[in-house]
Design a protein that fits this description.
The complex is a heterodimer of chains A (about 300) and B (about 280).
Chain A lengths: L1 H14 L5 H32 L2 E4 L3 E5 L3 H5 L6 H37 L3 H9 L6 H11 L6 H6 L11 H28 L2 H9 L4 H12 L1 H16 L3 H6 L11 H11 L3 H30 L1
Antiparallel strand pairs in A: 1-2
Chain B lengths: L4 H29 L19 H7 L7 H32 L5 H11 L4 H15 L5 H5 L7 H11 L3 H9 L4 H12 L1 H17 L2 H6 L8 H10 L6 H36 L1
The chains are: A mainly alpha (about 300), B mainly alpha (about 280).
């Protein structure tokens, strides 16, 4: 009896808490194929990129010698042309984040609430969602035609002569308008899903209490949706920071480089001028900035959720 | 919710105006695609002389637009990449969610951290790496990098952790190994989530512009998105009838996906937002 019991406990201690190493290797094999892909196409490029950013690098020749942190320090050299362009592009991109994110969160929030209160929900939802599954190039091809100064449908419709894509502030207004048209539906779907997941009673109770639509929106809906709205805010901020295709294809970064985005600047440095080392240094600075922004935003989101 | 009629009317009007704003560019897109070039600027929504000539010349062999080839490239890379992602991510998510092995936690944190890395940060090193492998301007470059994204692993990870333990234990009693448990329980039960992941990956790869722009260089290896962009700034830059016809053509797979997989796509978007 005693030996049997002892054997049982010993079996338990060797088997339950920790599997033996053969079995662990068997389990690891499930993750291995993905990890290989991850290592080759994400892990290695990050490490390799870090070393490239410390060297002069021309894609034809390869490394042109180590420069240490020189290319990072150069970004803080105000007399360097590439550094001036980088900071200008970063400012442009920040400006875009500030003028696009409020619309990308606010408009879908209002529309989602309207949809919740309205019949034909699925028709409206489809209409608003469809543009967000289009490619950047289809969207920009359509809008570069819509926004032509001479004879473009928008100017024709309003009987105006607005230089949408070639003068400021119209160029930013156009890029903002197109971005909202293109990606608003994505946020709308998330917010609408959030509203339908609220306990039915919260919104109904408000209406029984006689709260109007706007009161309910302000003092019930928005506070209840806080965590979803934070997610939408984070995704939109990151998306807007990664601005590339809209100015690249609509304005070419003009007029006068005023809509040049950081991504396009890095693209020009790397693939236009073949300065891959300094372009990678710029990309890493931008990557760190973006990671910091999303880290801070994730942090506040966590705190709010408690 | 009870509301007076005029409030209902305002809400409905907001939505109708909003939807018209969303649809308006499509109407012009279609209208221009069916107009001869001389009518492109006539300002009429209904084409006065409707024609298929734009589509014919966009698709004509020997035009600088290799439209069918581009479409084939885009479809092939999007399909292969999404199949690969579904299999790799499903296996990895099962391993991470249900099995124990050394370093599991470290791998999870590594994958979470990787979600914060913006694409621009790896663009150039990835380009140089593929150049080293001799894979630039091949299908390898158009497919392989998409398999590294950790998004799908988390999507399925969350789905798999919610599958009841009892199902698994019953299978263990029946003597099923880990692989069989994955194949017989997790793979089939995970089909809704995996289909969503597959659809999202397909659309992501089909629509991607930045990576195929730098990863391909020959006209015959371009994808649909890059092809449209090059024609828009090149040969079609002044001929909007041809550009709109090409754009309509490039949207056909998107339309099909929208009609048949709208629910999966919206589901994917909604869960992305809610699970974060």
């Amino acid at each position: 009896m005693r030996t049997a019991a002892a054997r049982q406990t010993s079996l338990r201690t060797t088997e339950r808490p920790r599997e033996n190493w053969v079995s662990q290797i068997g389990s690891f094999l499930f993750v291995l194929p993905y990890l290989v892909a991850f290592g080759f196409f994400l892990g290695y490029p990050i490490v390799f990129g870090a070393t490239v950013s410390l060297q002069h690098w021309n894609p034809m020749i390869g490394s042109g010698g180590w420069v240490g942190l020189g290319q990072y320090l150069n970004l803080f050299n105000p007399s360097d042309l590439a550094s001036q362009q980088f900071w200008q592009a970063l400012l442009n991109t920040l400006l875009f984040v500030f003028i696009s994110v409020p619309f990308l969160v606010g408009i879908p929030l209002i529309l989602a609430y309207c949809m919740y209160l309205s019949p034909w929900k699925s028709v409206f939802r489809s209409a608003f969602f469809f543009p967000s599954i289009l490619s950047a190039t289809s969207v920009m091809a359509v809008w570069s035609w819509m926004l032509q100064t001479e004879g473009g449908p928008i100017n024709h419709f309003f009987g105006s002569q607005i230089p949408w894509l070639v003068r400021q502030p119209w160029a930013w207004i156009s890029i903002d308008l197109v971005t909202v048209w293109w990606s608003m539906g994505f946020n709308l779907i998330i917010i609408y899903a959030g509203i339908t997941q609220l306990p039915q009673s919260t919104l109904d109770a408000a209406s029984i209490d006689g709260a109007g639509i706007i009161r309910t929106f302000r003092s019930i809906l928005v506070p209840q949706l806080k965590s979803i709205l934070s997610v939408v805010l984070i995704l939109s901020t990151i998306g807007s920071f990664n601005l590339f295709a809209q100015p690249f294809l609509l304005t070419g970064g003009g007029p006068n480089n005023s809509t040049m985005s950081v991504s396009q600047e890095i693209y020009n440095q790397g693939f236009g001028l073949n300065h891959m080392g300094s372009a990678t240094a710029m990309a890493f600075v931008m990557g760190i900035l973006l990671a910091a922004v999303s880290f801070v935003q994730y942090g506040t989101l966590r705190e709010r959720r408690g | 919710m009870k509301m007076p009629g005029w409030k209902r009317g305002i809400i409905f009007a907001i939505l109708v105006v909003g939807s018209l704003f969303m649809v308006f560019p499509f109407l012009w897109l279609l209208s221009t695609a069916f107009k001869p070039e001389s009518d492109a600027f006539d300002g009429h929504l209904i084409p006065g002389h409707p024609t298929f000539a734009n589509f014919a010349s966009v698709l004509a062999p020997g035009s600088s637009a290799e439209v069918l080839r581009w479409l084939g490239n885009s479809l092939l890379s999007a399909i292969v990449a999404s199949l690969a992602v579904m299999v790799l991510d499903s296996l990895a998510a099962y391993g991470l969610a249900r099995l124990q092995f050394f370093g599991r936690k470290v791998i999870l944190y590594l994958l979470i951290a990787s979600l914060m890395v913006p694409f621009i940060a790896v663009l150039i090193p990835l380009y140089l790496e593929l150049a080293n492998f001799g894979l630039l301007d091949t299908y390898g470059a158009l497919i392989l990098p998409y398999t590294a994204n950790a998004f799908g692993v988390f999507l399925l990870y969350q789905f798999y952790t919610n599958i009841p333990k009892e199902l698994e234990e019953a299978a263990i009693v029946d003597g099923a190994g880990k692989f069989q448990i994955w194949r017989r329980i997790f793979l089939p039960l995970g089909i809704p989530a995996t289909a969503t992941l597959g659809m999202m990956t397909f659309m992501g790869v089909y629509n991607d512009f930045f990576w195929p722009l730098v990863a391909t260089s020959s006209n015959s290896m371009r994808t649909m998105t890059v092809g449209v962009a090059l024609m828009a700034i090149g040969p079609y830059s002044t001929n909007y009838s041809l550009l709109m016809a090409l754009t309509v053509f490039s949207m056909i797979p998107t339309f099909i996906a929208f009609i048949f997989a709208q629910r999966q796509l919206m589901q994917g978007v909604a869960t992305t937002g809610i699970n974060l």
